[in-house]
Amino acid sequence: MRELLGGKGANLAEMARIGLPVPPGFTITTDVCTYFTANKKSFPSGMDKQVRQAVVTMEKQTGKKFGDLKNPLLLSIRSGARDSMPGMMDTILNLGLNDNSVKGLAELTGNARFAYDCYRRFIQMYGDVVMGVQSHDEHEEEPFEEVMAKLKKERKVVEDNDLTAEDLQELIKRYKTLVKKFTGKTFPEDVYEQLYGAVSAVFGSWDNERAIIYRQKYNIPHEWGTAVNVQAMVFGNMGDTSATGVAFTRDPANGEKVFYGEYLINAQGEDVVAGVRTPKPIAQLADEMPKSHKELDAVRKKLERHFKDMQDFEFTIEDNKLYMLQTRNGKRTGLAAVRIACEMVNEKLINNKTAVSRIPAESISSLLVPVFDTTKLKNAKKISTGLPAGPGAATGKIVFSAARAEEISAKGIKAILCRVETSPEDLRGMIASEGILTSRGGVSSHAALVARQMGKVCVCGANGVVINYARKTLSAGNAHLKEGDYISIDGTTGDIFAGQVDTAPSEVNQVLAGKLKPAKSYTYQMFETIMQWADKYRKLGVRTNADTPEQSQMAVALGAEGIGLCRTEHMFFEGDRINYMRQMILATNTKERKAALKKLLPYQRKDFTGLFKAMAGRPVTVRLLDPPLHEFLPHDDATRRDLAEVLGVSPEIISERVKALHEENPMLGHRGCRLGISYPEVTEMQARAIFEAAATVLKAKKPIDVFPEIMVPLVGFEKELKLQVDVIHRVASEVMEAKGVKIKYMVGTMIEIPRAAIRAEKIAETAEFFSFGTNDLTQTTLGMSRDDSGTFLPLYKDLDIIPQNPFATIDQAGVGELVQIGAERGRATRKNIKLGICGEHGGDPTSVKFFHKAGLNYVSCSPPRVPVARLAAAQAALES
Ligand code: PEP
Ligand code: MG
User: Fold this and answer.
1) 97, 270, 433, 806: which has the fewest Cβ within 10 Å?
2) What pTM, to 2 d.p., does this model score?
3) Which of 838, 841, 852, 861 is catalytic?
4) Long-range contacts of 53-57 (CB under 8 A, 24+ apart)
């Protein structure tokens, strides 16, 4: 019932059902949240009666009474959405304390210090979250902390724990004065007023800024709402026989099957999660509280057997009695997701279909992330070590605030966000950074959880690192660094280095490059296992966008079944070629153009020969030239002078021709097939290069099969395609005749203009295949430039006009429908027409799933995205 009860509420109920020790409580549903938001923050009628009944039930179960002078029932009020949003919403603990009930608690526990500490924590939390007593400047101290610090100074103590019960009573007085001064209101004594205040605040926190950012990042619908869980408090801070902790049933960083977690003796849950005190590893609990450790280990096994997934749970030990406060599917790194899924299949907990469905397709790419170059690492200066919280290697410039991280990353500079401890407010900065380093907090602090999920490199709890926000410095031992200096962190080992350290490819990449034996890499073996399972289930083919033999080889090693797009203009970026290419573009007559083309032909032929060899008989889609002219024209004087020299003309002539070719909208200009139609000799040269290369590999000593698919770009009108295809067929016959070989080939077109999708029925008369160019199709359908939409797209996302960047994730309702129309109409004419997509969307899991549903034959994406597409395609097949 997670839709109604939220993840936390549903799993609390489930744990209670399977006999785990859960403190009694009740859940106010997500429906109430939706009602609350839609009805000016009011509650549905009848709710109050139900809440009071539920409290009475809890009173019976616990033998305590809400607001009682003698034996008060204290409550925890926690949020819980359908999908977990760690730390993004508010929590209130110790609710039900007031000037009366605190005395009851003191008497009952025989521990006045404890009772007053609970009370002051409650005022602090409630004052902050419900009444808004908080600073709005990240460099300013929180008002409650300031009052506390002042009292500690007066009493000449260092730790909070050194304050006596009397000190705490004084602190409570001052806290209440602060609340009155800050808000003009008195702190509520009525426990039901407290309860409704807290419930309203938790519902309200669904719409706080960080929760909204989080939902945007993880595509959680705003209309879901959160549930509120009201539970009897249990205390991990009742002395040395009490503790609290967070644990995982397996290691969330690398997936190893070990009991993993941390705890603090004599503390409340918030202390662990907020990362204020650095907790101890769970193994140590076996010495400190052997009975509880044993019980926990049994719980760990029971949880996995029941939920059949790695769990992340919170527990509290109150005076040697264990309570489970929460469980949920644990967030994990990409590596851990793969390992846990593989090993759970081996353990027969799940089958391989579940394994394939469960690994987020995106996460497979984290197996392909770089690690530090070990040779360079030897010379690097290690300055400290922290806890390894998010694997991978990252290097970048030190920044101390989220804002600064965003600022420099927008300029393309890599940032490492360094914070004493991160709070959810830092989310924006974490997204913008390469890696995150904190000097405090454990591996289950929010920083660590969120970083892992984002696949960010993260080192946390580095006690040896001293961060000074005011001076913008970071020191460790005798190393003193400042903002803007380079730092490198290893999220797999926890090591921190001063300076920039080069990174090296992942183990998987090293195996694929033949530098590491497969048998030596468990990671690689798991990667292969998952990929084989994925291939078993997927229906979509996966090809790659590659323009060089190296890229093609890498893509094939990663599982590409062909080239879906070779952008031939990319073959002209280097060396002399760019000049010949420019000569061709700037030619004023056919003779000049042919002269330039003649020089380009051998390069093209050689390139295609290389590609065909690398692809060894797999289909290769070669797209005819599609250079938006502005990308190729010489822009600055120096380049113009160089070009003039090469061409033996004056720089002025070059400038004149550049001026003549200037277009206001080059993306909509003389590009794509328009170029080949104006200058058929360009198409002819390219076709010749393709067929001659094909003849070369077919006639080689060791012949290689070759299957070119020649693709015409930017077609909108049937006749455009027809004119180009005539040239291709003519050249094909000429080459085959001259070389005495038969070459199997196809001609087809890109569908990247709305008109082409609409006229697909007619276009398919000539085209033997379609490849949807969703980059241009998005650009032309939405009328948004693919090069400069950055100015308004973020706002569009914020306003929910377009939930995702349409150039990254396909706009299913608009552009997607054109793809469907194109596919349908193409098939109406040519039943077996081959349909693919080669825009950037081919490597985006959500889009891949859409293309599966649209019935395409394959997606084509950049080489590193091939495994992601394979996995997403399998998931799409399993989902349907
Ligand atoms: C496209 O438009 O989607 C495409 C693949 O072509 P290009 O990105 O080269 O314009
Ligand atoms: Mg295009």
Assistant:
1) 270
2) 0.78
3) 838
4) 54/26, 54/230, 55/230, 57/24, 57/26
Nearest residue CA, atom 9 of ligand 1? 567
Residue-wise pLDDT for 454-488, tens only, equals 668 899 889 899 999 999 999 999 999 999 999 99
Cα(first)–Cα(last) distance of the chain, in Å? Answer: 23
**CB 569 less than 6 A from any atom of ligand 1:** no
**664 vs 667: CA distance, rounded Å:** 9
Burial of 310 (0-12, 13-18, 19+ CB in 10 A): buried
Q: Is 458 an active-site residue?
A: no
CA–centroid distance, 776 to ligand 1, in Å, is 6
Could you tell which of 545, 714, 775, 856 is best to mutate to test the pocket of ligand 1, judged by most ligand atoms within 8 Å of the CB?
775
Q: Above 70 in pLDDT, residue 98?
A: yes
Confidence of residue 538 (pLDDT cuts 50, 70, 90): very high
- The answer to whether 96 and 66 are in contact (CB under 8 A) is yes
Question: What does the alpha-carbon distance between residue 593 and residue 731 come to, in Å, rounded to a whole number?
Answer: 18
Determine the residue type at 126: Y
pLDDT value at 217 more than 80: no
**Which residue puts its alpha carbon closest to atom 4 of ligand 1?**
773
Q: For the purposes of burial, counting CB atoms within 10 Å of the CB of 151, is it exposed (0-12), middle (13-18) or buried (19 or more)? A: middle
Q: Which protein residue has the closest C-alpha to ligand 1 atom 3?
A: 773
Active-site hit among 33, 118, 342, 446? 446
Q: Whose CA is nearest to atom 1 of ligand 1?
A: 773
Is residue 446 part of the annotated active site? The answer reads yes
Residue 842 makes CB contacts below 8 A (sequence gap 6+) with: 545, 564, 774, 848, 851, 859, 860, 861, 865, 869
Our answer on whether the CB atom of 773 is closer than 6 Å to any ligand 1 atom is yes
CA distance 393 to 31: 44
- Tell me the average pLDDT of the chain: 91
Whose C-alpha lies nearest to ligand 1, atom 6? 773
Q: Measure Cα distances from 637 to 239, 579, 633, 643, 647 in Å.
A: 77, 15, 12, 10, 15
Q: What is the pLDDT of residues 420-466, one digit of tens each?
A: 887 766 778 988 999 999 988 766 565 666 676 566 889 988 989 99
Pocket probe for ligand 1: among 752, 782, 851, 862, the residue whose CB has the most ligand atoms within 8 Å is: 752
CA distance 231 to 106: 21
For ligand 1, is residue 547 a contact (CB within 6 Å)? Answer: no
Ligand 1 neighbour 839 (Cβ under 6 A): yes
Please choose, from the candidates 860, 190, 139, the residue with its C-alpha nearest in 3D space to the C-alpha of residue 563.
Answer: 860
Transcribe 590-624 into DSSP letters: HHHHHHHHHHHHHHHHHHHHHHHHHHTTSEEEEEP
CA distances 797 to 146, 219, 399, Å, are 38, 11, 26
832: DSSP letter: T
User: Using alpha carbons only, how large is the chain's radius of gyration in Å?
Assistant: 32
